[in-house]
Design brief:
By secondary structure, the chain is mainly alpha-helical. It has helices at 20-33, 37-49, 61-72, 80-87. The protein has a domain at 18-50. The chain is built from 4 helices and no strands. It is elongated. The N and C termini lie far apart (45 Å).
Amino acid sequence: MLIGVYYMNTAIQLKINLTEELQELLKSKASKFGIPLTQYVKHVLMKDVEDQEYPIFKASEETERAAREALQQLDKAVNAKSFFQKLHK
């Protein structure tokens, strides 16, 4: 049985160091497409992994049971920020 799964598809920021020569080469290629260097690098990375399959793991029965229970009790959740603020008073 598979229950609802929620993915946080958030972007991360990646910092890389390039030689000046490589940066200029990549800028040149990006300019041929009329796109920024960062967008071109993202495109190259995506092309590199496009034929890869992301692994999918099935949750254990215990994990699925715990997730169902947690979802049923969602209305009892506390606001963690206010909870920790109260601890520091």
